[in-house]
Amino acid sequence: MFDLSETVSRVESCSVAVARRVAAMLDLDPGDIVEGSPLPRGWHFVLLGADTRRSALRSDGFPGLGVPMPDLGLPRLVLGGRNVSYLKGIAIGSEVIRTSCIQSVKPKTTNNGPMAIATILHEMRTLPDLELAISETQTYLLLPAREGVAIDDEAAAPVTVSDDWSQTVVPDETLIFQFSALGFNSHKIHLDKAYARDVEGYPDLVVNGGLATLLLTEFMRRDLCVAPTLLQARHVAPLFCGRPMTLAAHREGETWRVRAFDDRGRLAIDMKVDAG
After folding, report:
1. How far apart are CA 75 and CA 77, in angstroms?
2. Which InterPro entries does the annotation name (predicted)?
3. Distance between CA atoms of 209 and 221, rounded to whole angstroms?
Protein backbone atom coordinates (compact mmCIF):
# COMPACT_ATOMS: atom_id res chain seq x y z
CA MET A 1 0.00 0.00 0.00
CA PHE A 2 1.11 3.54 -0.70
CA ASP A 3 0.42 6.70 1.23
CA LEU A 4 -1.69 8.80 -1.12
CA SER A 5 -2.66 11.35 1.50
CA GLU A 6 0.12 13.91 0.96
CA THR A 7 -0.80 17.05 -0.97
CA VAL A 8 1.82 19.67 -1.80
CA SER A 9 0.66 23.30 -2.13
CA ARG A 10 2.81 26.18 -3.30
CA VAL A 11 2.48 29.67 -4.76
CA GLU A 12 3.67 29.97 -8.36
CA SER A 13 4.33 33.24 -10.15
CA CYS A 14 3.14 33.59 -13.74
CA SER A 15 5.66 36.35 -14.32
CA VAL A 16 6.09 38.51 -17.40
CA ALA A 17 9.75 37.48 -17.61
CA VAL A 18 8.96 33.76 -17.72
CA ALA A 19 6.15 34.21 -20.26
CA ARG A 20 8.51 36.22 -22.48
CA ARG A 21 11.04 33.40 -22.36
CA VAL A 22 8.37 30.92 -23.46
CA ALA A 23 7.53 33.25 -26.35
CA ALA A 24 11.21 33.47 -27.32
CA MET A 25 11.51 29.67 -27.21
CA LEU A 26 8.55 29.44 -29.61
CA ASP A 27 10.18 32.05 -31.87
CA LEU A 28 7.52 34.63 -31.06
CA ASP A 29 8.19 38.29 -30.26
CA PRO A 30 8.69 38.56 -26.47
CA GLY A 31 7.74 42.23 -26.71
CA ASP A 32 4.15 41.19 -27.43
CA ILE A 33 3.88 39.73 -23.91
CA VAL A 34 2.41 42.29 -21.54
CA GLU A 35 1.32 42.15 -17.93
CA GLY A 36 -2.38 41.44 -17.45
CA SER A 37 -2.92 39.64 -20.75
CA PRO A 38 -4.08 36.02 -20.57
CA LEU A 39 -1.46 33.29 -20.51
CA PRO A 40 -1.86 31.30 -23.75
CA ARG A 41 -3.35 27.88 -23.10
CA GLY A 42 -0.61 25.30 -22.87
CA TRP A 43 1.99 27.70 -21.51
CA HIS A 44 1.11 26.79 -17.92
CA PHE A 45 3.83 24.10 -18.00
CA VAL A 46 6.13 26.72 -16.46
CA LEU A 47 3.95 26.58 -13.33
CA LEU A 48 4.37 22.80 -12.94
CA GLY A 49 8.11 22.60 -12.30
CA ALA A 50 9.48 21.00 -9.15
CA ASP A 51 12.31 22.65 -7.20
CA THR A 52 13.83 19.32 -6.21
CA ARG A 53 17.30 19.52 -4.67
CA ARG A 54 20.00 18.00 -6.87
CA SER A 55 20.84 15.43 -4.19
CA ALA A 56 17.20 14.26 -4.22
CA LEU A 57 16.87 13.69 -7.98
CA ARG A 58 15.97 10.27 -9.31
CA SER A 59 18.83 8.30 -10.87
CA ASP A 60 17.55 9.30 -14.32
CA GLY A 61 17.72 12.98 -13.34
CA PHE A 62 13.95 13.47 -13.28
CA PRO A 63 13.08 16.02 -10.57
CA GLY A 64 9.78 14.42 -9.62
CA LEU A 65 6.13 15.08 -10.25
CA GLY A 66 5.55 17.85 -7.73
CA VAL A 67 4.98 15.33 -4.93
CA PRO A 68 7.19 12.63 -3.38
CA MET A 69 7.07 9.35 -5.29
CA PRO A 70 7.40 5.93 -3.64
CA ASP A 71 10.58 4.01 -4.45
CA LEU A 72 9.40 1.00 -6.43
CA GLY A 73 12.78 -0.07 -7.79
CA LEU A 74 11.68 0.92 -11.30
CA PRO A 75 14.32 3.28 -12.71
CA ARG A 76 12.70 4.31 -16.00
CA LEU A 77 9.84 6.80 -16.26
CA VAL A 78 7.86 7.80 -19.35
CA LEU A 79 4.77 9.92 -19.85
CA GLY A 80 1.69 7.90 -20.76
CA GLY A 81 -0.88 10.64 -21.09
CA ARG A 82 -2.46 13.77 -19.71
CA ASN A 83 -5.92 15.32 -19.35
CA VAL A 84 -6.11 19.10 -19.01
CA SER A 85 -9.21 21.18 -18.22
CA TYR A 86 -9.01 24.94 -18.81
CA LEU A 87 -11.65 26.51 -16.59
CA LYS A 88 -10.46 30.08 -16.15
CA GLY A 89 -7.76 32.28 -17.63
CA ILE A 90 -4.53 33.02 -15.78
CA ALA A 91 -3.26 36.59 -16.19
CA ILE A 92 0.40 37.14 -16.97
CA GLY A 93 1.96 38.82 -13.94
CA SER A 94 -0.39 37.14 -11.46
CA GLU A 95 0.18 34.38 -8.91
CA VAL A 96 -1.58 31.05 -8.54
CA ILE A 97 -1.73 28.40 -5.85
CA ARG A 98 -0.76 25.03 -7.26
CA THR A 99 -1.68 21.85 -5.41
CA SER A 100 -0.31 18.46 -6.43
CA CYS A 101 -1.06 14.97 -5.18
CA ILE A 102 -0.69 11.35 -6.19
CA GLN A 103 -4.12 10.01 -7.07
CA SER A 104 -2.99 6.42 -7.49
CA VAL A 105 0.01 4.13 -7.91
CA LYS A 106 -0.88 0.76 -9.45
CA PRO A 107 1.87 -1.90 -9.64
CA LYS A 108 1.48 -4.43 -12.43
CA THR A 109 3.25 -7.48 -13.77
CA THR A 110 3.61 -7.83 -17.54
CA ASN A 111 5.43 -10.14 -19.93
CA ASN A 112 8.33 -7.67 -19.79
CA GLY A 113 8.47 -7.67 -16.00
CA PRO A 114 7.13 -5.40 -13.25
CA MET A 115 5.85 -1.90 -13.91
CA ALA A 116 3.60 0.64 -12.26
CA ILE A 117 1.19 3.34 -13.38
CA ALA A 118 1.28 6.58 -11.39
CA THR A 119 -1.47 9.18 -11.73
CA ILE A 120 -0.71 12.71 -10.54
CA LEU A 121 -3.22 15.55 -10.16
CA HIS A 122 -2.21 19.22 -10.40
CA GLU A 123 -4.67 22.04 -9.77
CA MET A 124 -4.00 25.77 -10.19
CA ARG A 125 -6.18 28.35 -8.49
CA THR A 126 -6.03 32.07 -9.09
CA LEU A 127 -5.38 34.56 -6.31
CA PRO A 128 -7.03 36.10 -4.40
CA ASP A 129 -10.36 34.44 -5.32
CA LEU A 130 -9.01 30.84 -5.24
CA GLU A 131 -11.08 29.89 -8.29
CA LEU A 132 -9.93 26.75 -10.09
CA ALA A 133 -8.24 27.80 -13.34
CA ILE A 134 -6.53 24.64 -14.63
CA SER A 135 -6.78 21.00 -13.62
CA GLU A 136 -4.25 18.61 -15.11
CA THR A 137 -3.95 14.87 -14.58
CA GLN A 138 -0.72 13.23 -15.72
CA THR A 139 -0.18 9.51 -16.09
CA TYR A 140 3.35 8.10 -15.93
CA LEU A 141 4.66 4.60 -16.52
CA LEU A 142 7.39 3.42 -14.16
CA LEU A 143 9.41 0.72 -15.90
CA PRO A 144 12.33 -1.64 -15.17
CA ALA A 145 15.81 -1.04 -16.54
CA ARG A 146 16.22 -1.72 -20.23
CA GLU A 147 18.75 -4.31 -21.35
CA GLY A 148 20.62 -4.16 -24.63
CA VAL A 149 21.76 -1.47 -27.01
CA ALA A 150 19.95 1.46 -28.55
CA ILE A 151 16.72 0.95 -30.47
CA ASP A 152 17.45 0.29 -34.14
CA ASP A 153 17.66 3.60 -36.00
CA GLU A 154 16.16 2.79 -39.39
CA ALA A 155 15.97 5.19 -42.30
CA ALA A 156 12.96 7.48 -42.23
CA ALA A 157 10.06 6.84 -44.58
CA PRO A 158 7.88 9.55 -46.16
CA VAL A 159 4.94 10.67 -44.03
CA THR A 160 1.50 10.88 -45.60
CA VAL A 161 -1.21 12.53 -43.50
CA SER A 162 -4.78 12.84 -44.73
CA ASP A 163 -6.02 15.24 -42.04
CA ASP A 164 -7.56 18.60 -42.99
CA TRP A 165 -4.70 20.62 -41.48
CA SER A 166 -1.09 19.59 -41.02
CA GLN A 167 2.28 21.11 -40.28
CA THR A 168 5.82 19.79 -39.89
CA VAL A 169 8.20 20.91 -37.15
CA VAL A 170 11.68 19.72 -36.15
CA PRO A 171 12.43 19.83 -32.41
CA ASP A 172 16.19 20.36 -32.16
CA GLU A 173 18.60 20.26 -29.22
CA THR A 174 18.16 23.97 -28.51
CA LEU A 175 14.37 23.73 -28.29
CA ILE A 176 14.52 20.64 -26.07
CA PHE A 177 17.08 22.32 -23.79
CA GLN A 178 15.07 25.54 -23.50
CA PHE A 179 11.83 23.71 -22.72
CA SER A 180 13.58 21.52 -20.14
CA ALA A 181 15.17 24.58 -18.53
CA LEU A 182 11.89 26.52 -18.35
CA GLY A 183 10.20 23.53 -16.68
CA PHE A 184 13.28 22.76 -14.52
CA ASN A 185 13.23 19.23 -15.96
CA SER A 186 16.64 17.55 -15.75
CA HIS A 187 15.56 14.11 -17.02
CA LYS A 188 18.66 12.77 -18.78
CA ILE A 189 16.79 11.37 -21.78
CA HIS A 190 16.22 14.99 -22.87
CA LEU A 191 19.72 16.31 -22.16
CA ASP A 192 22.32 13.53 -22.21
CA LYS A 193 22.58 11.73 -25.56
CA ALA A 194 24.93 9.03 -24.24
CA TYR A 195 22.55 8.27 -21.36
CA ALA A 196 19.52 8.18 -23.67
CA ARG A 197 21.32 5.75 -25.98
CA ASP A 198 23.34 3.53 -23.64
CA VAL A 199 21.06 3.38 -20.57
CA GLU A 200 17.51 3.96 -21.80
CA GLY A 201 18.05 2.37 -25.22
CA TYR A 202 16.90 5.28 -27.41
CA PRO A 203 18.66 6.26 -30.65
CA ASP A 204 18.84 9.96 -29.69
CA LEU A 205 17.55 12.54 -27.21
CA VAL A 206 13.84 12.16 -26.54
CA VAL A 207 11.50 15.09 -27.15
CA ASN A 208 9.73 16.00 -23.88
CA GLY A 209 6.13 14.81 -23.83
CA GLY A 210 5.19 18.24 -22.51
CA LEU A 211 7.03 19.95 -25.35
CA ALA A 212 5.26 17.83 -27.96
CA THR A 213 1.93 18.67 -26.31
CA LEU A 214 2.83 22.37 -26.32
CA LEU A 215 3.66 22.23 -30.04
CA LEU A 216 0.24 20.69 -30.67
CA THR A 217 -1.62 23.33 -28.64
CA GLU A 218 0.38 26.07 -30.37
CA PHE A 219 -0.55 24.56 -33.73
CA MET A 220 -4.20 24.79 -32.68
CA ARG A 221 -3.87 28.31 -31.28
CA ARG A 222 -1.86 29.93 -34.04
CA ASP A 223 -2.85 28.00 -37.17
CA LEU A 224 -6.41 26.88 -36.39
CA CYS A 225 -7.47 29.66 -33.97
CA VAL A 226 -8.79 27.00 -31.58
CA ALA A 227 -8.77 27.53 -27.80
CA PRO A 228 -9.05 24.18 -25.99
CA THR A 229 -11.27 23.83 -22.95
CA LEU A 230 -10.43 20.15 -22.45
CA LEU A 231 -7.71 18.02 -23.96
CA GLN A 232 -7.13 14.31 -23.49
CA ALA A 233 -3.79 13.10 -24.79
CA ARG A 234 -2.29 9.61 -25.12
CA HIS A 235 1.46 9.34 -25.67
CA VAL A 236 1.96 6.10 -27.56
CA ALA A 237 5.48 6.39 -29.04
CA PRO A 238 8.58 8.53 -28.46
CA LEU A 239 9.68 11.41 -30.66
CA PHE A 240 13.37 12.07 -31.19
CA CYS A 241 15.56 15.14 -31.47
CA GLY A 242 16.29 16.51 -34.92
CA ARG A 243 13.63 14.43 -36.66
CA PRO A 244 10.58 15.96 -38.33
CA MET A 245 7.31 15.51 -36.48
CA THR A 246 4.05 16.05 -38.32
CA LEU A 247 1.18 17.78 -36.53
CA ALA A 248 -2.25 17.03 -37.94
CA ALA A 249 -5.83 17.98 -37.05
CA HIS A 250 -9.38 17.45 -38.20
CA ARG A 251 -12.83 18.00 -36.74
CA GLU A 252 -14.99 15.17 -35.44
CA GLY A 253 -18.38 16.74 -34.79
CA GLU A 254 -18.07 19.07 -31.80
CA THR A 255 -14.51 18.01 -31.00
CA TRP A 256 -11.09 18.08 -32.64
CA ARG A 257 -8.73 15.18 -33.23
CA VAL A 258 -5.15 16.41 -33.06
CA ARG A 259 -2.22 14.06 -33.54
CA ALA A 260 1.55 13.98 -33.83
CA PHE A 261 3.40 11.54 -36.08
CA ASP A 262 7.09 10.74 -36.11
CA ASP A 263 9.36 10.89 -39.15
CA ARG A 264 8.29 7.39 -40.21
CA GLY A 265 4.60 8.18 -40.08
CA ARG A 266 3.97 6.35 -36.80
CA LEU A 267 1.43 7.82 -34.39
CA ALA A 268 3.20 9.33 -31.38
CA ILE A 269 0.46 11.41 -29.70
CA ASP A 270 -3.29 11.07 -30.07
CA MET A 271 -5.27 13.98 -28.62
CA LYS A 272 -8.99 14.65 -28.35
CA VAL A 273 -9.80 18.33 -27.84
CA ASP A 274 -12.96 20.17 -26.82
CA ALA A 275 -12.88 23.85 -27.72
CA GLY A 276 -14.73 26.85 -26.38
Report:
1. 7
2. HotDog_dom_sf, Mitochondrial_HTD2
3. 18
Using CB atoms within 10 Å of the CB of residue 219, give its burial: 0 to 12 exposed, 13 to 18 middle, 19+ buried: buried
* Tens of each residue's pLDDT in the chain, 276 residues: 455 668 899 999 999 999 999 999 999 999 999 999 999 999 999 999 888 899 988 889 999 877 877 778 899 999 999 999 999 999 999 999 999 999 999 999 988 889 999 999 999 999 999 999 999 999 999 999 887 655 555 555 556 666 789 999 999 999 999 999 999 999 999 999 999 999 999 999 999 999 999 999 999 999 999 999 999 999 999 999 999 999 999 998 889 999 999 999 999 999 999 997
What's at 259, amino acid-wise?
Answer: R
DSSP single-letter state for residue 14: -
Cβ(133)–Cβ(87) below 8 Å: yes
Point out which residues pair with 258 in neighbouring strands: 249, 271
Backbone angles phi, psi at 210, to 5 degrees: -65, -35
Alpha-carbon distance of 22 to 176, in angstroms, equals 12
Q: Residue 30 and residue 221: Cα distance in Å, rounded?
A: 17
Say how many C-beta atoms besides its own lie within 10 A of residue 5's C-beta. 7
Query: Do 217 and 96 contact (CB within 8 A), yes or no?
Result: no
Answer for the pair 215, 223: CB distance below 8 angstroms, yes or no. no
Given 3.90.25.10, 3.20.20.70, 1.10.10.10, 3.10.129.10, which CATH number is that of 7-275? Answer: 3.10.129.10
Computed on alpha carbons and rounded to an integer, the radius of gyration of the chain in Å comes to 18
Stretch (H or E) spanning 232: strand 228-235
Burial of 162 (0-12, 13-18, 19+ CB in 10 A): exposed
* 3-class DSSP assignment, residue 205: coil
